[in-house]
Amino acid sequence: MGILTVTVYSKADRESLHRLHADAAYEIGGEDPSESYLNADRILRVARRSGAEAVHPGYGFLAENAEFVRRCEEEGLVFIGPDSKAMALAGDKLRSKAVLKDAGIKVSPGSGRALKDVKDATDMAETVGYPIILKISGGGGGIGMEIVEGPEQMDGALNRARSLALSAFGVSDIFLEKYHLGARHIEFQILSDGNKAVHLGERECSIQRRYQKLIEEAPSPAVDEEMRDEIGRLSVKAAEALGYVNAGTIEYVYSEGEFYFNEVNARLQVEHGVTEMVTGLDIVGEQIAIAAGEGISLGREDLGLNGWSLECRINAEDPLRGFLPSPGRVREVCLPGGPGVRVDTALRDGQPISAAYDPLVAKIMTHGRDREQAIIRMRRALGEVTIRGVQVNVPLHEAIMRDEAFMSGDLSTSFLSDRDVYKELARMRRREEQRKRELAAALAVAVTASEGALRWRTETFATEREMLGAWSLAGREGLQKLRLTYGHEIQRSH
């Protein structure tokens, strides 16, 4: 687009690629987000100093902070996203649900207001019917959600949710909704310029851990063309009811053939790339064009879906230890490529991974003519990943890509526990550890045999040339035997 870029970074991100790729970069504070990425004063100071005209918030930290948007407006900066009024409305789950319910969009049965105390919550839950889920009105990212299966669990769950709400968001308003067992998470991407709004189809985001997405795809295996048109129309209606301008996402819970509005993501989504791959649009480019007052040039009739796309979020964490983060310094990085493969990352050799931030280190996306080809390409892409120095969740993605239910499109937000994926992952890890032990043993045998052969040849052969010729032949034969068993790894080890 020919636009010069300015970026900010914390001390922990001095070696990050985003700093190196920008036209200008400014360090704004320490590793703690409150000193850097959540510090609006320092970010705005950089904007003034650099002469920036607009701020793109990305998809974390202050991206959905209505107060930060208001500060940008006061400074005369264009915020690439909704205005502060729409941002505040979208971020208040109770208010946004009430507005959309009045607009004729179905929402899950629930309290519809903040809960007063445990008795109030228990009475509401009896009316709605167990199981229910507790949510923070001003929260996001799955933080503070608590599933309650009976009245005996309510006290502890409500206290935990309130405590987390205060520490994470500075609010204490908790509400409840019906928890839909076996539900799917489906969201619609929308674009609005204030005069016209369109949807770009749906994304399936049902495979999650701790209420946070792991795998996304577009389109959804559960949505046909008629459903897409209908829910897409409702999503556009939702954006209009909220006074929403720019790119956003309308999230739904899909259960037993019904779509229930869940929440608005008033920002660019992590998974926007899969929509780009099936529509051919540059969503970030569209965001900038809308913010610049250029409007939306395309109508819904121009936006067809081409093929299928998948995304796997590569996180520095250990799925077999409760997704415990794995901070450290990356020693080696090798990421996939080839037809239909896209990788979004800031990772490189020597990159430090901080425990202070989200563990996402890369997004691997594939595109195919259909879902089957996209899955096959993803399997290949995952097999090409090498990230050493930190634990990553690539084996979990490999296990999911070979799961029968996943391949058939039978998905839900409880997929990982329902399908015993962790057991398969544990078996895969044991096999990998056994393979490494066998490889190490084979190498030890090869080295010992070679040392013995060298001593024998030194005593037997008359000339150095004769000895080296026999040594080379024996070495090639030994390596060939090992390669037949262990492939390319033995070569890399040497």
CATH third-tier fold name of the largest domain = D-amino Acid Aminotransferase, Chain A, domain 1
Q: How many separate domains make up the residues?
A: 4
Q: Kindly state the mean pLDDT as a whole number? A: 89
Report the structural category: alpha+beta
The CATH architecture term of the largest domain is: 2-Layer Sandwich
- Bulk shape: globular
Unreliable runs: 461-494
Q: Could you estimate the helical fraction of the residues in percent?
A: 40-55%
- Number of helices, counting only DSSP H or I runs of 4 residues or more: 17
Give the class-level CATH name of the largest domain.
Answer: Alpha Beta
Cα gyration radius (Å) = 27 Å
State the distance separating the first and last CA atoms.
47 Å
Tell me about this structure.
There is one protein chain. Residues 461-494 have low confidence and may be disordered. Helix 12 packs across helix 15 (421-460). This protein has helices spanning 17-21, 40-50, 66-75, 84-91, 93-102, 118-128, 154-169, 225-241, 272-279, 283-291, 371-383, 394-401, 404-408, 415-418, 421-460, 464-486, 489-493; strands at residues 6-10, 24-29, 54-55, 78-79, 132-136, 146-148, 174-178, 184-192, 197-209, 212-218, 246-255, 258-265, 308-315, 317-318, 324-325, 328-329, 332-334, 341-345, 352-353, 360-368, 386-388. The two termini are 47 Å apart. An 8-stranded antiparallel β-sheet has the order 12-11-8-9-10-13-20-18, sandwiched between helices. It is built from 17 helices and 21 strands. It has 494 residues and is of the alpha+beta class. Helices cover 41% and strands 22% of the residues.
